[in-house]
Amino acid sequence: MSPEYAELHCLSAFSFQRGASTARELFARAAQLGYRALAITDECTLAGIVRAWEAAQAEAVALIVGSEMAVEQGPRCVLLAENLAGYQALCGLITAARRRAPKGEYRLLREDFSGVEGLLALWLPGPDIDLAHGHWLKGVFGERLWLAVELHRGPDDAHCLARWEWAAQALGVRCVASADAHMHARGRRALQDTLTAIRHHTTVAEAGQRLFANGERHLRPREQLAQLYPPALLAETLAIAARCQFDLSQLQYHYPRELVPEGHTPASWLRTLTDEGAERRWRKGRGKPCEQLDKELAIITDKGYEAYFLTVHDIVRFARERNILCQGRGSAANSAVCFALGITAIDPSNSGLLFERFISRERNEPPDIDVDFEHERREEVIQYVFQRYGRQRAALTAVASSYRSAGAVRDVAKALGMGPDAVNALAGCVSRHGDELPTPERLREAGFDPANPALRRVLVLAGELQGFPRHLSQHPGGFVISEHPLHTLVPVENAAMAERTVIQWDKDDLDKVGLLKVDVLALGMLSCLRRCFDLLRQWRGRAWGLVNIPSDCPATYAMLGRADTVGVFQIESRAQMAMLPRLKPKEFYDLVIQVAIVRPGPIQGDMVHPYLRRRNGDEEPDYPSDELKAVLKRTLGVPLFQEQVMQLAIVAAGYTPGEADQLRRSMAAWKRHGGLEPHQAKLREGMLRNHYSEAFAARIFEQIKGFGSYGFPESHAASFALLCYASAWLKCHEPAIFATALINSWPMGFYSPDQILQDARRHGIQTHPVDVRYSTWDCSLEATDAEQPAIRMGLRLIRGFSQGAAEAIEQARRAGPFTDVADLAQRAHLDARAREQLADAGALKGLAGHRFRARWEVASVQPQLPLFAGVQAPAEAPVALPRPSVGEDLHADYATLGTTLGPHPLSLLRRRLSKWRCRSSRELPLIEHGRPVNVCGLVTGRQRPGTASGVTFVTLEDEFGMVNVVVWLDLAERQRQALVGSRLMQVQGRLERNGEVIHVVARNLLDMSGLLDGLAVRSRDFR
Amino acid sequence: MLWACILLPQLALDGVLRGRADPARPLVLLGGPTQRRVLKAANASARALGLRPGLPLSTAQALALGFDSAEYDLAQVAQAERLLAAWAYGFSAQVSLHYPRALLLEVGSSLGLFGPWPHFQATLHQGLAAMGFSRRITLAPNPVAARVLANLHDGLAVTDPAALEAVLCELPIACAGLAREHAASCQRMGLRRLGQLLGLPRQAVARRFPAELLQHLDRLRGLAPMALEFYQPPDRFEARIELNYDVESTQALLFPLRRLVADLAAYVLARDGGVQRFVVQLEHALGPPTEVPVGLLGAERDPGRLFELARGRLEPVQVARPVRSLRLLAEQLPAFVPGRRELFDARPQQLQPWEQLRERLRARLGDDAVLGLGYAADHRPEQAWRAAPGPPAQAGGTRPGWLLPQVQPFAVDAGALQAGPERVESGWWDGGDVRRDYYRVQLPDGRLAWVYRALGEPEGLWLQGWFG
Question: pLDDT tens digit string along A721-740?
């Protein structure tokens, strides 16, 4: 009969590069071995404790919350939380130790322990016992101290045991058995050695004594423990485990209360704010959906989420006061309440979106509102939150970055002694973000022998390591805010960025424990839109905003139907442009679909074509039942959104809302961990029970699988669609303003300033060159005879030019126009570099003539010394300098500005190209489908979407527009060099037309870059 | 004075290629940090694959498959420069390494000895070709002009100043040896040829460019002198060849060995001396190199005979571990300037006897007979104790000082278990995983044995060592 046992000292994978098993594995093993309890005691962290809690519930083995730590100049010990006070003390200790050390390290001091209660301590004396440490611990913990006896079949266990027992007796404490487990089973020994080598930045062969001598640090069977330990020591573990009664469910989280003024409850204050906002939103109460607001507020009160809405409202209010544009999205964001509070600009009463679709009484999930802010100004919002609630009560959420296959392969290969180039080559065999290990073919191609035992070891270990947490980093904008100091709930540590603090839990952990988070995210398009609105006010004298842009504008939808969408939010990519003429959006909800449909999820789930056929009337929508019709009607019977899949499971297969949420989580993770199989059976059974056909059930399951992690929620698509419509409307009606704002917000979006300017010119907008006499840092507008103003290119387009210099120029110019280069240099205090950049960019043409002259002139500017102030520089005899040729100007334009207002390079080459029978993009619409065709252009994009098997999409640009080229895999393999290396490419192929969408399917690629003579064209490679 | 410039346009690449049996295989040299490896050089066949210097390695791998790569090794480049300077010293007493990857030789004084320039130039070409270096050679009245002309020309010999001026005027600005930023400035002003710059008023140029530019132009045209530091040959020789794969037989080492010995011979020939003793070191990925000393009765400098001697000494060597690179070291070179050496010789003489003693012992008893005891940090006993050169190291506490070379079956009749089991599970990474439980057993005769039982094989104990 094996003795009962509880393990009190065990590390999980969250002791980074130490623990070689996940909590799930540890608890499964503990259950199998019949342990009474398992303590997870990661080193000075609770980052893995929520996962451990979940695993403990799943396996029905008691979890003891604890942490192993080393006191600076003092003992190592394990602390275990006895009760809630002990847990809070532990969080406080970890927070104190982490906050005073750089990210990833900790410094625990003796004084941190004063007044600590509710914690039990196990002293880890090690082989060289320092009794002074024991005495100090005894002083702190008294009867709550034990001496941990950890036997690992070392050189002389009996001797060690005797010495520890002697030390315990000397201190008057009891001994207890523990394992110092680093893994769940002996089989992880190799991975544990590898992690040790990674931690020490060395190889396993060099790690020597830093490796453990054997694999005993795992959860050992109780009969083995009985052979090693005296029975009393094993029995003691149970006594300790029985005392540790803390459970994470005891945590009490309270939302901050200060947002509610005296005399109000959160509910009454939310009601007041909502009513005030509703007055503003619905002028004189016209169209105000009173019933809807009442219903929503009732649900919010019922669930106790008032404070959450008030918090988001407060952040949004701050942004509005600072004129920072923002827009909420997420399950709760599309509510009438959020519209009234100004969190979203979508009016739910006329968008066809219903709040209950996103939040309901039955579904027990917390509300989720992400708010996007202008990307250049989000930091102001983040600092506001820290100031408003204080660093004690507000912190960012963590992200537990985990090993993907490339990283795992890289670290393991390095630890196993592969050279740097071989490591790179091997890591190159796996996709950077993928989760699959390289295939033997791919390995052979990269020059590896897949049968080589050393390589096999690397791959096996990398496979084990995959998915392990690697380090904690900060979530880009997920805030947790609490009424009480956060470190009473969860340890807080420093982020890599100064002035930021991060809690040790990620968003899944927060969900599980019931903490609410607010996402403060950054979005480039919002910066662009705010600039548009500013320019509109200056230029047209009208105060436009997201809310009052005219909806349902036919001209805008017509433009979208032509796929004329360079710069339009979310639908400007090539795939989106190909979809637009087929989908021809006519109303707002079409945009919601358009945003969501060109995604890997619907594409892999084969939902796009059925939807298009039904939309174009080629096929009748069919609904297997009336209940499902309600769910799928708005997408013509094809599930396109994540919410629909969940709803479908509820309606058709009888899932509870909670189970549907489980399904959503499994959908996101099945590629990595599997776990969809139980749902397959359950969905099928449920559907058959509800009289759906076997074929229907199978099809739905395939669609869910295809959806995988890429399903797009309708609640987010709706918010994106709003920004999409706003940007489209601006592009349609104010193209000059839109293009200017886009360039001034760059880098963002899909297109370079060059492409945006070319697009503007094709729409008849005049563009003026950079000129030091008129240009400001940003691109600006200049009046013309036409209705649309002209765009004056800004100094920001000059590569490497500093904003400070540009502002100095603007300021000096206000005092009067510049007379010559010397005057400019002197009054704007320009250094030699800035002067040269202006000359090379052609910005001095008005002062000094062509580039060469300008460069000659700026070189003669010398710093004015006070002594010689007012003394004119000696007059110079004029020097004969050549004029730049058209090609030289073009070259210089691209090199300095990345764009040109002169002739397009292809127009200079056009005569030569027509000798090779190359057609321009303008001629392509006149050519019949299936005809052979030659095209040539600058390569501006190479894209290899993960969804389309092996196809590379190449975008060529010529003087009239873009040509879309499709390169199939076999050609890409054969002509790798031309495909990857060309800046100017000629494509011989065949024209394919599908409605208004035209591609050239390549048959042969020719690298024509030689013709460009060093023209600097940047190609953006998208993956 | 007449100055020849030998420009070595792909010195780093040649340094690697000359150590390889098949220089036609595509080869690139890599540099930069591990995260961002960049091609630093590519040979002709690699260029034919579309590989260019400056390309990130990841792009190169996307472009082409099946090319070799080696490290761009600055130390190796410097070594090759020193080798070539020593070789050139055989042709002129004034050799300068002032410019990187180029040799400057004053040849006006040597023309009498090595014949008229075309003949002399051919000799230089031949010597460099034999050593495996590509090169461009020019001749000019001053060293700066010789170096600048080599940017564009090969074989051009300009001897009088007027002709030089005409050649210089036609030179593209980018090739004129100006600092990169000055050349760029000139081009941005529309100045394409050096003549255009020289045609501008000196005052106007002086106002726009730092003084170095005019100084360089003056030196280039021979209007101002150039002070050069001249090469002084050292009195030792050291050269190293990195192998591109792990070599496990001495036969495969013969080709690089021949290169090294030929370099040595060229070197001592240029010094007009010989070599009496040198060491060939076989360097391994791990652990100390294997040394193969080669001693001669008298000074020797014929490459063929030196190679035969070295080969005779190398071939019997058992290559225990794969060889990564080969180094040749010659400390004993007959004095080049005997008087000087006696005056300034500061080599520590006391090192000699130990080396000599060890060599003598090895010569008498065989190389394997003289070894120290080394201790390596490894949990496996047989890996932790190794015979190694050097003084004996301290061993860990609870393990015996005497390990048997081979474990033996251990049969117990009687004996007292003193300690154990100590479990050792380690070494999976090199295929030599052990899983054992060790025991300390006192035999009736008082001896303390260290024995183990292999886990998973319940039968049988093995004796690994004895405690002292």
Answer: 999 999 999 999 999 999 99
Q: Does domain A766-865+881-902 have CATH number 2.60.40?
A: no
Contact A743, A766 (CB under 8 A): no
B375 phi, psi to nearest 5 deg: -120, 125
pLDDT > 70 fraction of chain A, expressed in percent and rounded: 93
Phi and psi angles of residue A655, each rounded to the nearest 5 degrees, phi first: -70, 150
- Interatomic CA distance for residues B233 and B87, integer angstroms: 10
A602/A639 Cα distance (integer angstroms):
8
> Distance of CA A850 to CAs A18, A187, A282, A881, B182, Å?
65, 74, 58, 10, 20
Query: Quick one: B106 and B122 in the same domain?
Result: yes
- Write down the ipTM of this complex: 0.73
Name the minimum distance, in Å, from the CA of B425 to any CA of chain A: 4
B353: part of which helix (H) or strand (E)?
A: helix B351-365
For residues A444, A448, A449, A455, the Cα torsion angle rounded to the nearest 10 degrees is -130
Q: Looking at the structure, tell me whether residues B52 and B92 fall in a common domain.
A: no
Read off the pTM.
0.79
Distance from CA of A207 to the nearest CA of B (A): 8
CA distance B261 to B312: 13
Q: Which of residues 817-836 of A touch B (CB under 8 A)?
A: 836
- Selected from 2.40.50.140, 2.60.40.1120, 2.40.50.40, 3.40.50.920, the CATH number assigned to the domain covering A905-1022 reads 2.40.50.140
Domain A6-250 CATH (choose: 3.40.50.80, 3.90.76.10, 3.20.20.140, 3.10.20.70): 3.20.20.140
**Nearest-neighbour CA in chain A from B261: distance (Å):** 29
CA distance linking residue A353 with residue A714, whole number of Å? 9
Cβ of A424 within 8 Å of Cβ of B58? The answer is: yes
Residue of A nearest to B384 (CA): A208
Give residue-wise pLDDT tens across range B400-420. 877 888 888 887 767 788 887
Q: What are the tens digits of pLDDT across the range A301-359?
A: 888 888 889 999 999 999 999 999 999 988 788 888 999 999 998 887 765 555 555 56
Alpha-carbon distance A245 to B351, whole Å?
72
Q: At what angle do helices A886-897 and A905-915 cross, to 10 degrees?
A: 130
Instruction: Domain of residue B307: give its range.
Output: 237-336
- Write down the pLDDT at residue B345: 47
